[in-house]
Design goal:
The chain is an alpha+beta fold. The chain has 5 helices and 15 strands. The chain folds into 2 domains: 149 residues, Thiol Ester Dehydrase, Chain A, CATH 3.10.129.10; 148 residues, Roll (Thiol Ester Dehydrase, Chain A). The longest helix is centred in the middle third of the chain and has 22 residues. The radius of gyration is 19 Å and the shape is globular. This is Acyl coenzyme A thioester hydrolase.
Length: 318
């Protein structure tokens, strides 16, 4: 048995000029990829095997990250099922005045064998401290709650194709499976292009809703990303996207979801123009995102446990 605290891994990144957007803050695609990097390392270390990203829950960028910042990523395995592991990943910005929470991510990884098929994890997780039991209890319920989402085939409507990408060996970590962090890196950029095409501006990623990676993408596949703006508020907009892979294994719908961007053309949240609502559910997602981001901004930072524990102690979640 391994305790949750003993699954912790830590990764540190330095934000350099090639990691940022035109206003000097960390490009969202890098943050997404780095979060998945930390979660993948924790899952691989725990399972002692290769893993693939199966699900990423809603995540929010709650604190800006700038050139020269040092970002620390901490990841824990907080729940285990037969062939899957839930990882909690938190990113902190280290500055002279003290660290601040940049974002958190909740992910499900699947252990895969030599045939790239799900394989039993083969290890158990122990929760002995109060905070570990709180995490285990919450993520047990959370894992049950997302089960319908994992089995559902959602659609985001008829979207125009923005771009096509051929998956190269550099887009995989091992074998011929595309790395989930790399796909998220591309998706953030492509969704931002859709935002710019709708109304020119400097768009910064504010949040990403749940993504279920339903089917694998292989090296050599062509992925088509379809995306379009489906909601425009005062200073933010939402972009719906869908990923389709084509290759020797046929055509597969891989994933779909939504990004929210804030227009920062004026150096701060800047009005976009006429508001638009194509998808009424976008209003629900916006309200939910704002509430969750607010909960994270007040999270307490600990040296020996996740900040997310303080969110749960207040009866909230993100």
């Amino acid at each position: 048995m391994t305790s949750i605290s003993n699954t912790e891994v830590e990764v540190v990144r330095l934000v350099t000029p090639h990691n940022v957007n035109p206003i000097g803050t960390l490009y969202g695609g890098y943050m997404l990829q780095w979060l998945v990097d930390a979660g993948t390392i924790a899952a691989m270390d725990f399972s002692e095997s290769n893993v693939v990203l199966g699900y990423l829950d809603r995540m929010h960028f709650v604190s800006p990250v700038k050139v020269g910042d040092v970002v620390k990523f901490k990841a824990w395995i907080v729940h285990v099922r037969r062939s899957s592991m839930t990882a909690l990943v938190e990113a902190y910005v280290k500055r002279a005045e003290g660290p601040s929470l940049a974002t958190i991510a909740r992910m499900i990884f699947v252990k895969v064998g030599a045939d790239d098929r799900p394989s039993p994890v083969g290890r158990a997780l122990e929760a002995s401290e109060d905070w570990e039991r709180a995490l285990w209890s919450y993520f047990s319920r959370w894992r049950e709650s997302v089960e319908p989402e994992l089995k559902r085939e959602p659609t985001v409507g008829d979207l125009p194709a923005v771009t096509h990408i051929q998956v190269m060996p550099e887009d995989a970590v091992y074998g011929d499976l595309m790395y989930g962090g790399r796909l998220l890196y591309y998706l953030d950029q492509i969704a931002a292009i859709s935002a710019f095409n709708y109304r020119p501006g400097i768009y910064v990623t504010a949040s990403l809703n749940s993504i279920n990676f339903r089917r694998p993408i292989y090296v050599g596949d062509i992925i088509a990303v379809r995306s379009d703006v489906d909601y425009v508020g005062h200073t933010s907009l939402e972009v719906a996207f869908e990923v389709v892979a084509k290759g020797l294994r046929g055509e597969r719908r891989v994933a779909s979801g939504y990004f929210t961007f804030v227009n920062m053309a004026g150096g701060r949240p800047t009005p976009i123009g006429q508001e638009l609502v194509k998808d009424p559910d976008a209003l629900r997602r916006k309200s939910q995102n704002l509430a969750e981001a607010k909960a994270l901004r007040t999270a307490k930072l600990y040296d020996d446990r996740p900040a997310y524990v303080s969110v749960l102690e207040r009866g909230g979640s993100a």
